[in-house]
Amino acid sequence: MTDHTHADTLRTPIVAVLGHVDHGKTSLLDTIRGSAVSEGEAGAITQHIGATDIPLDTISGMAGELIDPSDFDLPGLLFIDTPGHHSFSTLRARGGALADIAVLVVDVNDGFQPQTEEAIDILRRTGTPFVVAANKVDTTPGWNPQDGEPIQKSMDAQSERAKSMLDENLYEIIGQLSDAGFSADLYWRVQDFQKNIGVVPLSALTAEGVPDLLTVLMGLSQRFMKEEMAIDVTGPGEGTVLEVKDERGFGATVDTVVYDGVIRNGDTVVVGGQNEPIVTEIRALLRPRPLAEIRTEKQFEKVGEIGAAAGVKIAAPDLDDAMAGAPVRVVRDRTVDQVVEEVKAELAEIEVETSENGVVVKADTLGSLEAMANALREAEVPILRAEVGDIAPRDIAVAETANQDEHKAILGFNVDLLKNAESDLENADVKLFKNEVIYQLVEDYERYVEEKQRAQQETVLDKVVRPARFRILPDHTFRQNDPAVVGVEVISGTLQNNRNVGYFEGNEFERVGDLSGIQKQGDDVDEARAGERVSIAIDGPTVGRDIEEGDTLWTEVPEKHAKILEQELKEEITADEREALQGYLETRRKRDPFWGK
């Protein structure tokens, strides 16, 4: 790195806004943009692709007495709309998150929701510093809105009742943060933002508290990120793909956030692709036309170059296979091979471990694919194949090749089923799970597997020979042989008809015959439970020679069945059946320690 002493080499910090689906992320971004637009003339705000740049003077205008612009030498803040903004995806820059700092939006009335937990997980994993925007304070019963004012001023204007209701909700959120392992407090009470998370109460609707949010973000960036904001202004540009989009007249384009260096029209770039990195030459760098010219037909204007940090749309040949979340690198003074290797290495960090068998996973971005892989690893679900993109016919074909039934499944996070794959899915023995919340997706799949296993166990249980130990009652011989008919009491287990029975001579099992009938109070039955007395017919033995009154007999459980009962169905059988099984196995294993294992 060269020496960066001039102020103009500090780039804008990149801010990501995340949170649960209806907690007001989009409206917060709109409010920040809107207040910024009304603050200065529209020209102050450069619209970027997938991002909004708010310069320092605009921020200090909005924040009023909260900010002294001379305290800052960072140029402002760049808010990125995380793509498919329904969910947060970990967009990456070299080895870390793309966002330098994040705003976690939480509805002050609802507190933490599934996607909030997910966002927190990702922030924790990537180590991204963040502040919490406790949104919708204006919905507190009896709230008296103070449009655009700093939040403490606004809170002073509220009734005691409204204030205490809001406080209760805020402390609830602080408690939830602490459960998630973060020490947090209302931002004006936080001494050290590196140790504590600041909570900023605000309303995206009335903009009260928005000045505070901008102040806290500026302060955090200035204090803790100044070194990281130093960039090589003229170096080869580096960025991350937000989204791949087809644009009329340009074909496939990539919406990119540039976080280092500069990208120029005509540059050769390497972009991460579905299979191999894509090497291509930039045909056009596009950004939205200024608000003033929005009436013109063309929504984009071409620019010659773009420097960090900025959002830009890159038009170039061969971008169809580019991937959301993948790196974009300008080649400039290096060899193409060198840069291709760099991009491969960066993608390799995100490689998902796949195994010989498992489920097929599809997600909208590399970041969400990675988050899915982590969640499935924790749930011990193996992955056969993981890719970015919508669900295509070949995904269904791959899922069908899984060797276990429960792995014939596709888990799709924030992706669609392509039209040409619909009939394939209907005709395939493949189950599709789709959701916009990662852990919900994993839970749906786990529930499906459990139900499948339970159903399998029930059919297996119907076929398995149940263990039983029973005793021939004295004075209960009704017939000596062909078949022998005797009265018995079942000591433990379930005595089933049409089973082989016998006894242990030492540790040897001696089969005496086959049960051909069970009668309970004169009626034929299929089985008798522990504690019941029934009369049974046994083909084979003669009472007085092969068996005696008072003898204890056992149902003969085939070794394979014994193994299934002990290893898979132990929880499904009754306590007395377990007891009979235990006794049977112990005796068998005295002779052969590995019997039924």
TrEMBL record:
Protein species of origin: Halorubrum coriense DSM 10284
Family indicated by similarity: Belongs to the TRAFAC class translation factor GTPase superfamily. Classic translation factor GTPase family. IF-2 subfamily.
Task of the protein: Function in general translation initiation by promoting the binding of the formylmethionine-tRNA to ribosomes. Seems to function along with eIF-2.
Residues of the Translation elongation factor EFTu-like domain: 251-326
HAMAP family tied to this protein: IF_2_A (MF_00100_A)
Residue ranges constituting the Translation initiation factor IF- domain according to the UniProt record: 341-446
Alphabetically ordered keywords of this record: GTP-binding, Initiation factor, Nucleotide-binding, Protein biosynthesis
Domain (Elongation factor Tu-type): residue spans on this chain: 466-553
Top-rank lineage group of the source organism: Archaea
A Gene Ontology term for the protein's cellular component: cytoplasm
Family matches, as NCBIfam families: aIF-2, PRK04004.1, small_GTP
UniProt keyword Metal-binding, yes or no: no
Alphabetized GO MF terms: GTP binding; GTPase activity; translation initiation factor activity
The name this protein goes by in its record: Probable translation initiation factor IF-2
Gene3D superfamilies reported for this sequence: P-loop containing nucleotide triphosphate hydrolases, Translation factors, Translation initiation factor IF- 2, domain 3
One protein family per Pfam: GTP_EFTU_D4
InterPro entries: EFTu-like_2, EFTU-type, P-loop_NTPase, Small_GTP-bd, T_Tr_GTP-bd_dom, TF_aIF-2_arc, TIF_IF2, TIF_IF2_dom3
Residues that, per the record, bind GTP: 19-26, 81-85, 135-138
Domain Tr-type G, chain residue ranges per copy: 13-219
Keyword Nucleotide-binding (UniProt): yes
